[in-house]
Amino acid sequence: MSSLTSGGTNRARALIMRSPSPNPTRPPAGQTLAGSVYARLPRTIQTVAVSVSGWRLRHERYGGTFPSVLRDYVSRNRASEDEMLAIRRLKLRRILSHALAEIPYWSRTLRTFDVDPARVEGPEDLATLPILTKSDVLRLGAELRWPAARRSELRTVHTSGTTGAGLVFAATLEAQREQWAVWWRFWGRFGLDLNTWHAVFMGWTIVPGARRDPKPWRINWPGRQVFFSQYHLRPATAAAYAGALDRMALSWVRGYPSVISYLASLILDGERPRPRPRVISLGAENVLPSQVRSIREAFGVEPISHYGLSEMVANASQCPNGRLHIDEDFAAVELLPTGNGTVRILGTSLANLATPFIRYDTGDLASVHSSPCGCGLAGRVLERIDGRQEDLIELNDGTRVGRVDHLFKDAVRVAEAQIRQTHAGKCVIVVVPREGFGPKDEAEILGECQRRFGDRLEVNIQLVESIARTARGKLRLVVRGDAASPPRDAV
What is the DSSP string of 434-451? Predict the structure, then answer.
């Protein structure tokens, strides 16, 4: 990415300094900046705040042992299948031995089911253990945590996933660096590195939903990132988004396929600039063929994608041939046949000593590729991930927003949730409550909606006993159209 380095740096800096506006709430690197103080800051000061937070995160993620960890992962780009499985075996025995000695729940469970870490060859040897679910993690609490972990080495992870149920757990700093290393190995295969400037289209509220901002993006200078607000993307603003991407000459665009493909469709529908990034990488959602077509036509590049989870229990990266290879050296993944041509993805984290997830149910389904790939990369090959497929929700001004599971990141008293929409600008959030769910939890969800969407989405919450699954057993987080008729299963 040339334009934000050297001469392009001055041009991008001038773009920022001429932008006299306010805004966001949950910035990129520094989600702790969220709040009314940040929202009232001038745009230039917000950029400083985002960059300060970005510097801290860059140092945390890519400092310390990260360079050597990344070198190790990159060195295995051409490892044989046997070499990759040998690495996985060593890591799996290490995490199991640690869990047996240090984690109360796993100490009891591994002994009860007579699992000897020294005899384990692969994830298939864990089949006698009970499957760990998100509900189990919430129920077990401290029983799953490493009591002797040094607090200075721990970080808090928030995730929600496709069911909308919130989960908060501890991870070691080293585990997070290892996760970033496996992601950078993937991006590096396509010529990207830590100094590549890129656009990011993800779920952070970089500009508060209630504000009207003609330039809804902010720059994280240390992170080499330009964060674009997905909450302000609509036909009336598409030219500004496309123009900014074009002027900054960003060679890499990264984010949710639902958002990037929506921008692509808006570019195709009007007389708007045609940015030409070198790489577009997608993640966090199932990628649809229609999305790939729109992105290819609008941007002139075939998007790439990878699959990963905050729980660090599974990861799969696309190869140059366009297929997803399981990163066997990062997590121990089980593929359990469902009987309908798909497999259920269970995983064991090989890195996180703070909260070991063993035989964890991701809730995702996949299809396995039937023949060898031929690209030279090791790892089992997946045809596709049949999970995280979500519709966009539409605000009353035409803005369409995807990957809205962020609304439930901290909602630990929500068992399941689904957003149902039959009309633009209105929706019902259907919630299966956990014990203790009350008005405060409801107010927090509504408050998160207000921060992200302002007055452009009327939201009602309805408590239910259960939420219907798809024919493949998946819970869709967003349901639009006729399928989103008012629920009949209210509590």
Answer: PTT--HHHHHHHHHHHHH
Task: Give residue 165's pLDDT.
Answer: 63
Let me know whether 77 and 174 are in one domain: yes
Instruction: List, as one string, the DSSP characters of 393-411.
Output: EE-TTS-EE--GGGGGTT-
Q: How far apart are CA 264 and CA 436, in angstroms?
A: 43
pTM above 0.85, yes or no: no
- 336 within some domain: yes
Q: Report pLDDT for 484.
A: 57
178 in Cβ contact with 171 (< 8 Å): no
Tokens at residue 129, please? Answer: 């253990």
Q: Is residue 59 a part of any domain in this protein?
A: no
- The parent domain of residue 176 ranges over 66-188+307-385
Identity of the highest mean pLDDT range in 13-27, 96-110, 154-168, 352-366:
96-110
Please report whether residue 467 resides in a domain.
yes
Number of structural domains the chain divides into: 2
pLDDT digits (tens, 9 = 90+) for 408-433: 877 878 877 889 999 999 999 999 88
Report phi then psi at 296, rounded to 5: -60, -45
| Nearest C-alpha neighbor of 100 from the set 77, 129, 136 | 129
Per-residue model confidence as pLDDT tens digits over 4-63 = 433 333 333 222 222 222 222 333 433 344 457 888 888 889 999 999 999 999 999 999
On whether both 170 and 311 belong to a single domain, the answer is: yes
Does 459 share its domain with 376? no
Answer whether residue 407 is part of any domain. yes
Q: Which of 56-60, 103-107, 206-210, 299-303 has the lowest mean pLDDT?
A: 206-210
Q: How many residues does the chain have?
A: 491
Looking at the structure, do residues 88 and 129 belong to the same domain, yes or no?
yes
What is the pLDDT, as a whole number, of residue 407? 84
Which residue is listed with tokens 């809205």? 404
| Local structure of 265: helix, strand or coil | helix
Distance CA 478, CA 481 (A): 10
Name the domain boundary from 367, 385, 403.
385
What gap in Å lies between CA 50 and CA 29, rounded to an integer?
Answer: 7
Could you give the percent of the chain with pLDDT greater than 90? 60
Beta carbons within 8 Å of 350's beta carbon, 6+ residues apart: 88, 91, 92, 94, 95, 312, 329, 330, 331, 332
Q: How many CB atoms lie within 10 A of CB 440?
A: 9
Whether the predicted pLDDT of 211 surpasses 50 = yes
First to last CA, the chain: 53
Say whether both 379 and 343 belong to one domain.
yes
Exposure string (b/e) for 386-409, b if CB count within 10 Å is 16 or more? bbbbbbbbbbebebbbbbbbbbbb
- Spell 103-125 as b/e; 16+ CB within 10 A means b: bebbeebbeeeebebeebeebeb
Record the tokens describing residue 281, joined without a space.
């990488």
Domain CATH for 317: 3.40.50.12780
